[in-house]
Amino acid sequence: MSELDPVIHAQARLRVVVTLATLADGDRITFPRLQELLAMTPGNLSVHLRKLEDAGYVEIDKTHRGRTPTTLVRLSRRGRRAFEEYTENIRALLDPPAPRETR
């Protein structure tokens, strides 16, 4: 059995990744909306997003809507694969294969 990904496994980062994984592949969410959904402070969310970004699991785009700065966040392909592997490993922990009979 593989180990759980420590980047994703931290509770706050797991909540971020789960939320981003609900978006369609390539869809993005604004930082304030993500913050609202997760009930996290801007600083706390920023720290966890940085860790996920450093691992290549999220992509962050800073842009403008009109004159207003906007930060958009999405799960990268690598992040989506890592989350899929993470959930497979959790399922294996929760429902291990039956032991083989010995004769």
UniProtKB/TrEMBL annotation:
Pfam families: HTH_34. One of its GO terms (molecular function) is DNA binding. Coiled coil: none annotated. Signal peptide: none annotated. SUPFAM superfamilies: Winged helix' DNA-binding domain. The keyword Oxidoreductase does not apply. Transmembrane segments: none annotated. Residues 20-93 form the Winged helix DNA-binding domain. Keywords: DNA-binding. This is Winged helix DNA-binding domain-containing protein. It comes from Micromonospora matsumotoense.
